[in-house]
Write a structure and sequence with these properties.
binds zinc ion; acyltransferase; Nucleotidyltransferase, domain 5; ATPase_NBD; 10 strands; EC 2.3.1.234; transferase; metal-binding; binds 5'-O-[(R)-(carboxyoxy)(hydroxy)phosphoryl]adenosine
C-alpha cells in the first residue's frame, strides 16, 4: 500500500504551524510562536494575522525539510478552517488552497477543536489510543468543552463554558498577579512550590456539565486587593501559594464536571486536549484517576497540547482515507462548532 503524505497547516490563533505526516505518523511539526503579543498582555488579532503572513512560508519550508519530503510527494493539504480569529484563519486557508491548486492535490478542511481531540490517534509507541465511544475534555485558551466522541468525526458537546474558557481563567488570573502573557504555564510553574489549600477560592455553581470561570477571576481580584491593603507585599510574599490555590480551584472545577460526565454516560474512557492539557496538575490528576476512579485516561504528549499542525494532519489523514475532501472555494469559519 502507498504511503499517504499530508502537509498540515494551523493558523487559528497566534501560533503558525506546519507538519508533515506519513499516514498516522508525524515526520515533522514546526511551531512559530508569536512573541509580539507578550507586551500587550494578550493576542492582538491584527498583529497575529500579520505575523502569520510573515511566518507561513518559512514554517512550511522547514516542515518539509525536516520531514525530508519533496512537495511533489504530498498526497493532500490539510488546514484549520476554524474556529479561531478570522484574520489568522485567512492566512492558513488561502495558503493551503493555493498550494493544493498548484500541486493539483486534494484540500482537506479541519475543525480545530476536533483536532485537539483526534490528536490521540497519532501513532506513537508510548501513547495509548482510545476506542469509541469516549469522553474528551477540550481545555484551551478559547474553549472548555466536554465532548462525547462517538466516532472520528461524530461528536456531541455535552457541556461547555458559559463565559470564559479555562485557559482564559489561567491567563487573566496571571495578569492580576502581574505575570506576563500567556500566564497559564507560569501559574503551573509557580504552583509547584506553593500550598494548594492556602487560599480557598469559591467554586461556581453551574448546572449540568457546563462551566463558568468569570466569577473566579473576580474573587481572586477582590482577595488580592483586600490582602494587599493589609500588607503591601502580600503578593510578592505569597505568590507561590496564590498560584497553587488558583490552579487547585480550577482543577477541582474541571475534575468535578468530568466525574459527573463519567457518571452520567457510564463511559470511563476519558481524554483531554488543548493548551491547558499541558498543565502538570491536570496531567497528574488525570493519570491518578486511573487507579483512583478506575478510568482509562488519555493525555496527549506535551507538544501536542498547545496549538500545533500535527493534530490538524492526523484529522487530514483520517479524512483522506474517507476521501472527505473540500471544495477549492471553501472559506474560513471563525465560529465553527464541532
Ligand atoms: O490550545 P491553545 O494553544 O490555543 C487555543 O486554541 O486557545 O491553548 C492556549 C492556552 C492559553 O490560555 C495558555 O495559558 C494555556 O493554554 N496553557 C496552560 C499551560 N500551557 C498552556 N495553562 C495552564 N498550564 C499550562 N502548563
Ligand atoms: Zn487550540
Amino acid at each position: 500500500h502507498k504511503t499517504t503524505y499530508i502537509l498540515a497547516i494551523e493558523s487559528s490563533c497566534d501560533d503558525t504551524s506546519a507538519a508533515v505526516l506519513a499516514n498516522d505518523k508525524v515526520l515533522s511539526n514546526v511551531v512559530a510562536n508569536q512573541e509580539i503579543h507578550r507586551k500587550y498582555g494578550g493576542v492582538v488579532p491584527e498583529l497575529a494575522s500579520r505575523a502569520h503572513q510573515q511566518n507561513i512560508v518559512p514554517v512550511v519550508h522547514q516542515a518539509l525539510a525536516q520531514a525530508n519530503i519533496d512537495k511533489k510527494a504530498l498526497s493532500a493539504i490539510a488546514f484549520t478552517r476554524g474556529p479561531g480569529l478570522m484574520g489568522s484563519l485567512l492566512v492558513g486557508t488561502s495558503f493551503a488552497k493555493s498550494m493544493s491548486m498548484g500541486l493539483e492535490i486534494p484540500l482537506i478542511e479541519v475543525n480545530h477543536m476536533q483536532a485537539h481531540i483526534l490528536v490521540h490517534f497519532i501513532k506513537d509507541e508510548n501513547q495509548k489510543t482510545p476506542t469509541f465511544p469516549f469522553l474528551a475534555m477540550t481545555i484551551s485558551g478559547g474553549h472548555t468543552q466536554i465532548v462525547l466522541v462517538k466516532d472520528f468525526l461524530e461528536m456531541e458537546i455535552l457541556g461547555q463554558t458559559l463565559d470564559d474558557a479555562v485557559g482564559e481563567a489561567f491567563d487573566k488570573s496571571a495578569k492580576l498577579l502581574g505575570l506576563p502573557y500567556p500566564g497559564g504555564p507560569l501559574i503551573d510553574k509557580l504552583a509547584k512550590k506553593g500550598n494548594p489549600r492556602a487560599y480557598p477560592f469559591p467554586k461556581p455553581k453551574v448546572d449540568g456539565l457546563n462551566f463558568s470561570f468569570s466569577g473566579l477571576k473576580t474573587s481572586i481580584l477582590y482577595y488580592i486587593q483586600k490582602q494587599t491593603k493589609a500588607n503591601p507585599n502580600f503578593l510578592e510574599e505569597n505568590l507561590e501559594d496564590v498560584c497553587a490555590s488558583i490552579q487547585y480551584t480550577i482543577l477541582e472545577i474541571l475534575m468535578e464536571k468530568l466525574e459527573k460526565a463519567v457518571n452520567q454516560t457510564g463511559i470511563k474512557q476519558v481524554a483531554i486536549g488543548g493548551g491547558v492539557a499541558a498543565n502538570s496538575g491536570i496531567r497528574n490528576r488525570l493519570a491518578a484517576a486511573e487507579h483512583e476512579k478506575g478510568w482509562q485516561t488519555y493525555i496527549p504528549k506535551f507538544e501536542f497540547c498547545t496549538d500545533n499542525a500535527a493534530m490538524i494532519g492526523i484529522v487530514g489523514y483520517l479524512k483522506y482515507l474517507q476521501k472527505n475532501f473540500s471544495a477549492k472555494n471553501v472559506v474560513a469559519k471563525a465560529r465553527y462548532v464541532i
